[in-house]
Amino acid sequence: TTKPWKITRNHEKSAKIQEKSSKIDAKESDLEKAINYCIESNFKKIKIIGSTGLRDDHTFANLFLLEEYSQDINIQIYTDYYKIFISNGLNHFKSFPGSIISLVSFYKDNLITTEGLKYELKNEILKSASHGLSNISIKKNFMISSTHPIYVFQEF
Prior knowledge:
Shape: globular
Distance between the termini: 35 Å
Largest sheet: 7 strands, mixed
Number of strands: 7
Radius of gyration: 17 Å
């Protein structure tokens, strides 16, 4: 049995989502059903809260959904401490000095350039899985340029 899921735009849409959920492929997770509904409904941005909880397998899959759908819709996952999102190409982000910024790439050939972070990268690859962790924003904005999608964990 799956729990009903909702998108809290308004009650009318929530009812439609629940009704439609029974007709969608059961091979998709509830979150993936919700993302697909948002895309079909022409949403531009989704902020997801509460998707990193008791089930580590679901948390892991939910993080992979960020990249899978990053070309179709802007998705951000919020945890207790971080906003997690995908950056691809050249992007600028608001921040605050002292905020922890971690970068994770699953592409070994991902060339990354950053500005506004304590440990800047200049057209470099991450040398290990932990190489991009625990950087620090030194300005009110930072920039990331990458040749492939990159996960950004931004402390808020």
